[in-house]
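Exercise 7.
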Amino acid sequence: MTAIQFHERVIHFKDWATILFVLSFLVIGINKNVFQARFAEFIKLAVSDKYTKIYKDTSNLRSGFTISMFFIQLVSLTFFILLFLKQFQYSKIQEGILFVQIFTFLAVFILSKYLVEKIIATTFKIEEFNEQFNLLKVSYRTYFGFLLLPINIILFYNPLWNKNWIYYMIIVILFLANLTTYIVALKIYQNLVLRKIFYFILYLCTLEIAPYYFIYYFITKN
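Solution. The predicted structure, written as tokens, is:
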């Protein structure tokens, strides 16, 4: 009689990635059903600013919809950075560990930056602008993360698409999209910015430019 042998199934990183992708789409699906009107406006953010006008109250910064979409943004951005590092061989760390490291770093960085911004805004008495600006940034950046998610899936599961020029193109698009966020903010809050132009420039250089240089340095040197 042939003995039945049981083999332990090794769960590879792709299995964990699949779970994360499914979880992300599950969160999106829940938001689509729970926040139907808001989600409908959110997905049109690239062609209409109606979403930012309707949900401009700063309380929306801590709403369930914003927090859950922020999670999607983190997952999406983490996957893209991971894929970028692997594509250009900046890191030889096992993918699962690298994902956790990047995700943790981004989460801590963004939350720390948010707290520092609040302190500086209070010091310079620009709390209103800071809250509105943060809400605007979160709205657009979560939208970019939302759009980046399916691109990550294609790049992750289809190695044929892993071309250097694709990554460069995505980075340029993300940069331009981020720049657009600042332009939109300046247009909306131009009166407030002009009244406090010195503080705004200081804020921009200290909290919106320098931190990303340090992120780049940290990621490429570790």
